[in-house]
Amino acid sequence: MGKRGRAVAALRERLPLWVQLRCGLEPKTLGALAVVLVVAAALAAQHFWAARPRSVSAPETVSAAVPAAGAPSEAAPGALLPQAPPLPLPPPSGTARVVVDVGGKVRRPGVLRLPPGSRVADALQAAGGVEPGTDLTGLNRARVLVDGEQVVVDGPVPPGAVGPGAVPPGVMGPVGDGGVAGAGPPGVPVSLNTATQAQFESLPGVGPVLAQRIADYRAQHGGFRSVDELREVSGIGDRRFADLQPLVRP
User: Fold this and answer.
1) Helix-helix angle 3-14:27-50, to 10 degrees
2) What are 87-119's pLDDT values in tens digits?
3) Burial call 21-47: b when 16+ CB within 10 Å, e when fewer
4) What's the pTM value of the predicted model, to 2 decimals?
5) CATH topology for 96-160?
6) Residue 144 DSSP code
């Protein structure tokens, strides 16, 4: 018996009894059975190899790009789209306003709401303009408005107020004997927001030092909103304020 015969006999002994009886222990049958077993073992090995645990990486995030005007909306396959720029924030719902009270010789006096940075001229225009014949000599129309202030247009200059030796309101005149430079017509209150240094000095109890303090306070705080703010100026007490209150206006 050769090597092949011994191998077949050894394989035959290892097969189960029902296989030996069913296959008839023919060499061809044993060879086919061996091939089937080898193929089954290979398939089992492949199955276990494919089912082994493996690490999986997270997919990359691709941001959608906003197509430009006139550009095609479809991108090339496999191309990464650029990240869309952030959208601009919407403007704030409430815009700051300057609230002023315009009165006097204007067509539509009342409380106005104007954009920040508006000037006296803008307030007069929003109030419909001044009445015909109104004198604006003592009104600084280029001054920036302050929230909460009052703008009063005095009206036309009384007849005979402008003449020899008379000084119109808001215009500085020469200092003479017994006169005060910059003094306006009698009975007209001095505007704290437009008066000159000389007009401040024309008030009772106000000298050059106190007049300068009033002007400095006006420049630092953007003007006077009311006459009561005079109390905050250094050197003006209750007694002096009582004297000045009927003679001045914002």
Assistant:
1) 60
2) 655 445 456 888 999 988 888 888 999 999 999
3) eeeeeeeeebeeeeeeeeeeeeeeeee
4) 0.31
5) Ubiquitin-like (UB roll) (3.10.20)
6) B
